[in-house]
TrEMBL record:
Membrane spanning residue stretches: 12-30, 296-318
Domain HTH araC/xylS-type span(s) in chain numbering: 665-764
Protein name from the UniProt record: Helix-turn-helix domain-containing protein
Gene Ontology MF terms in the entry: DNA-binding transcription factor activity; sequence-specific DNA binding
Keywords for the protein's UniProt record, in alphabetical order: DNA-binding, Membrane, Transcription, Transcription regulation, Transmembrane, Transmembrane helix
Family matches, as InterPro entries: CdaR_GGDEF, Homeodomain-like_sf, HTH_AraC, HTH_AraC-typ_CS, Tscrpt_reg_AraC-type_HTH
Amino acid sequence: MPKFSGVFRSFLISYIVILIIPSLAGYMSYRTSISVTKSVSIENGITQLQKSKEILERRMAEVEGFTRQLAINQDLNVLMNERTANDQTNVYGIWKMMRDVLTFGQTNDFLQNFFIYLTNYNVVLTPGSAYFRPEHYYESFHYGDLSFDEWKQKILDQTHRSEIMPLHPFVNKGTDTSVITYMQSLPLDSFNGSSPAIAVVLIDAKTMTSLLSGLTDRYGGWVDISDAQGQPIAMQGIAQADIASMTSDPSFDSNKMDQFYDDDLVITIRSSSNGWVYRAGIPRHALMENANKIKAITWTVTGMALVLGVVVGFLLAYRNSAPIHRLLGIVREQFGQEGGASNRSDYDFLHGNISEMITSNKRLESELRRQLPLVRDAFLKRLIAGEFKSRDEILAAAAQANTGVSGHSGYAAILQINGYSGMDSVEILNELSAARLLLKQGLIDRAGQIPMTDLGSDKIVILFPTVDGETGHPVAREDVEHYLNNLERHVAAEYRMSFTAALGGFFPSETEVPHSFEQAKQALEYALHLNRKGVLWHDEMKLESATFYYPLDMELRLIGTIRAGEIEEARRIVDSVISQNTMRRELSIEMKHQLVGEIKGTFLKLLDQKAFQESDQFETVKTRILGIQETETIDGVRREIDEVMGTLCRLVTSRKNDSHMRTVEQIKQFVQERYSDSELTLYRIAEQVDRPEKYISQLFKEVTGTNLSDHLEKVRMDRAVALLRNHDHTVDEIASKVGYNSSHSFRRAFKRVTGVSPSSFRQSADHWEGGQIAE
């Protein structure tokens, strides 16, 4: 391995330097992390306590909002304002109100235990029950430190305006707990004295402290909430006596946000809305725990990284240096040069030769651009020769050659320079080359950029489009003739040169260009035969021929179009053949019979294709082809051929449609199986059916009339509707089960498709089912 040593050492030293730099950076980050961890922990504790405070205040605001909803409840207002007589009780109104308040506790766990006291009825309403005497309610629900009279006098017989009673022991159906009490007299404008109704919400201390469990679970510390007067609201992980001792200690500053007290970091936050004080204690060892972990992890990872990095550096140095030496060997072998002795000279050697290759590549690109006219010329020669088998192939080749003939119709023309027949000296060929350039430039000046190509040394083939590519104006036959006559006068006056222009018939599409070119060739032969100069159109001549017109390229184009299922294009080719043999020629009876036989032979060749042999209509079509009589009229033959072509093209189209339907069914099945996958995309569907994305999107739309994305959404919504009709899953769970990453996007999609939200749909479905059962 001596020849690898130079490059190998270079790579190895680089990797070791790269390895040392992050190691130093890791050590520095470790030193700074010790000091930063403390501040980060304090910040996280403050953030966590702040979030808990915000959540708790939102829940309390919902409790207050609940009492305000009660204040505007019409049924409750009716009950509050009723005057009882002879101990009559509005049982239905009380039952209806009790049913209405039953749902409030389902949205906020702070509203699990509340009651409404109606003064005029002396009734206590709770979710699911009505107590027609307060003492009956007190038997199951009462404060541990208040008698019935004290409870009635302090809560039921007074007016309350969003009052909160601090933490008290409470007995809930025999279970001991602690609650804080929110009280609001109804209506809201009740003043001192008695009020028609009182809404009382009993909030379990465990429910409140569960909102603060994030701090205690994370750090193992404690949390305390007290009101503005210092009365306890909720606490976890600490006793009330310890809180009182801490707040009364002169060394403890109650107004400071964070401070250390008895080896605990105490964080204090005050609420601006109700004056409550939130305190959290984080043990010091918990703060340093992360720093110690960082220390252990840093040293362990750094040591392992150094050892592993050196090993990997050796392997990478060898692996990366070996290809360079192989490349050096190849370059030296190809260029026959030797690199210097040092590593530096090896890189200089590669640099020089690669630079030379890049320069050569640029020269090649320049040469390719220079050769682009030759590519266009080759395309036009293939086009007029009829070498393309379908219109799609022509359009693809035209786009590649950038010829500008896509989608055009027009006329094919041949210009032959007069006076040079039989001359082939170097001087004559140079003169003809100059003459062709002059004619091309003259045409460009008059007709714009149109496709042209040379045909031999003294001829130019031109495709005149029927629409000007620059202005978009239509170009008529008279315009083409005007261009050529104008050009003829110009070259005669300026260069004393003349030419003969022969033009074929109109080609409606690119596939008919060879036919128009053949007509132009016939017209040129006719003009040369009569020694005619100027412009001659194919339809201005009358051919007398003892043979029929059905060239091989025309037959091949007809076969190709039928195999592609393009019935209209096939009809144009057949009409062109028949027109050539009836309008431009006078065929004998024998030639007419031979022409019909040749056409029948073309279709019998088509039937030899495997695609048609497997069809159940093979024998029927074959019998029909063989049944075409040569003695029939040309119109009758045309009709029979047209029906045969229609049958064959329908077979091709049917096979295509069957393939399309199988692909669409495969897509539908895959969507039905994978709709719950949120990563199901058009790319994954295309990958499954082994087709391009754009293809399957257009195909699905054509076959089903629906966008693929809309179909996927419908499948998901149908499943969501089925899941919403029962209560086994929440809306968020259903969103995940039908393939949505978030419940928000699922709700938007569901409302867009069905017109209602998922919750509204579930409620309406429940009501409908309940109505059916009741009937």
